[in-house]
Write a structure and sequence with these properties.
This protein is mainly α and 232 residues long. It has one domain. 55% of the residues lie in helices and 2% in strands. It contains ten helices and two strands; from the N terminus they run ααααααβααααβ. It has a two-stranded parallel ribbon. Helix 1 runs antiparallel to helix 2 and helix 2 runs parallel beside helix 6. The radius of gyration is 18 Å and the shape is globular.
Length: 232
């Protein structure tokens, strides 16, 4: 049994669509992938996660993750798969989807807009003061969740990040198997360790996992760099 599997936010195994977007598998060459919406989502989510893992600028991470995540959600629905928000609403029918989207986009809108729709300066001071890197944990998780539903494979880093996320937020898990996996890899002291230590553990597990041929050769592991770099 492979070490990493995609779990939904309730801890159930969720492999996503096996007929979704097709990207290079392990051992394939990183060439010939044109610019379309799927590629744009992958590039934005990949760059966002790369910056996040290296503990770089949190605002850039958030903007990229929101942009890629919005496209990924559309691709999921286009592939006739269940998006994160639809999945959440299925289990909690009383959820206000429009309100959830407003909350999801509140920081993103504050970061990318200087004025309101009426043309006046936005009054975002209080909102901006409340932003922290922890917000990106959830933004990245939702973005990669939707991307996984529309795709046939995920970068290794995104797979490890999913497990790291559950180690940081075990209350979101319903599966004991998933709880044990996250604790085994990342420890159970997430409430007491520093943010930098949590990120360091994420980097360590990613690097050690690159040596695992079972993971790297698995057809669900995309074999392109997380940060895809320049076009062409």
């Amino acid at each position: 049994m492979r070490k990493f599997q995609a779990f939904d936010e309730y801890g159930r195994h969720d492999p996503g669509s096996r007929k979704g977007l097709k990207f290079p598998r392990a051992g394939q060459r990183n060439r010939g992938y044109g610019m379309d919406k799927a590629e744009i989502a992958r590039r934005q989510l990949g760059k966002a996660l790369a910056l996040f893992i290296d503990d770089q600028d949190s605002v850039s991470v958030h903007c990229l993750a929101c942009g890629g995540g919005e496209i990924a959600e559309h691709l999921t629905l286009k592939a006739r798969q269940t998006s994160f928000f639809d999945h959440a609403r299925k289990h909690q029918p009383d959820l206000d989807t429009k309100k959830i989207r407003r909350v999801r986009n509140q920081y993103w809108n504050a970061f990318k807009h200087a004025t309101s729709q009426s043309g006046f300066d936005r009054q975002d001071e209080e909102l901006l003061a409340s932003f922290s890197d922890e917000v990106n944990d959830h933004t990245l998780f939702v973005g990669w969740y939707d991307y996984a539903r529309a795709s046939t494979s995920l970068p290794l880093e995104a797979q490890v990040f999913q497990v790291w996320y559950f180690a940081m937020y075990p209350e979101k898990l319903a599966s004991q198997e998933a709880v044990e996996k996250s604790v085994r890899l990342f420890g159970s002291d997430h409430k007491t360790i520093s943010r930098s230590e949590a990120k360091r553990r994420l980097r360590v597990v990613i690097e050690s996992s690159r040596e695992d041929r079972e993971i790297m050769d698995d057809p669900m592991t995309e074999n392109r760099p997380l940060d895809l770099g320049p076009i062409g």
